[in-house]
Amino acid sequence: xxxxxxxxxxxxxxxxxxxxxxxxxxxxxxxxxxxxxxxxxxxxxxxxxxxxxxxxxxxxxxxxxxxxxxxxxxxxxxxxxxxxxxxxxxxxxxxxxxxxxxxxxxxxxxxxxxxxxxxxxxxxxxxxxxxxxxxxxxxxxxxxxxxxxxxxxxxxxxxxxxxxxxxxxxxxxxxxxxxxxxxxxxxxxxxxxxxxxxxxxxxxxxxxxxxxxxxxxxxxxxxxxxxxxxxxxxxxxxxxxxxxxxxxxxxxxxxxxxxxxxxxxxxxxxxxxxxxxxxxxxxxxxxxxxxxxxxxxxxxxxxxxxxxxxxxxxxxxxxxxxxxxxxxxxxxxxxxxxxxxxxxxxxxxxxxxxxxxxxxxxxxxxxxxxxxxxxxxxxxxxxx
Length: 384
Prior knowledge:
Helices cover 64% and strands 9% of the residues. By secondary structure, it is of the alpha/beta class. The two termini are 38 Å apart.
């Protein structure tokens, strides 16, 4: 039988307790706002302004018409129009742009033979590559129809320049589009698995350190440990080593199951994939140390960590490319370590890159790791 008066006092007690933990209160109030913004903008945006280059080796009215059409299409953000084929391919290979549209030297010839255009496409970003492929096919299909009908249109439409109508007068055939998928046909599961591995390491490391530090502080185990003449660095170092060992075993299981269940190929090699996961695990163990440094209970830690972990899942390109998000979220993505772990994992697993190719991502992750450990040790509350 519930006693109404005491029942009310229990509610009041919990609210007073919440008031005494401002970090938990702020998290409870802010978290729903953050999540609705991420779902509404981060996952619901349209994929536009994808960076590309156009390699134009021809000159003439058809080339001008094609360039104008490409530049006016919202799907593309034309970074530059260049004439060097090797430079265009290098920009795609390096990840600077998503694709290169190549207009050959005979593109503007007044001949009846078919015009051949190439799309040099980075397929490691599976969703972006699908959009680019579809949009490019649509553009050159429309151009084919426009050009094939140009003779009759040029005589009826005064807005069409006579020189354009004359130069396209002999062109009757389609424009063929050849697509060079530089990493082959990549399925969505191939795009997803590297980031899922990184996200799993992130969640397990952060939640694990919350249980280890905040949980032991709450149960009194940490107090008994500090009754011995043990330094903070020794305690934290031992916990880090133990947690890292656990995560190494977890990483091995994750990779093995991804290959076994989903037939995921690891083009860059098993060892390099494992090393990247180890660096990521070390980074997020440090993140957990920093967040748990002054939290007194596991509940406090959970409420504080969620506003960090959940946005990272949605903003760092785990499920959807970063390009689908509003520009402010795209900028925000690059202050989260998970973005760099995802980029390195996809580089190794999908593109067949080496550790040297993803050195920047690894350096950033190690920089975050150093920062997290320094802040965590400095802020660590030994008074329990």
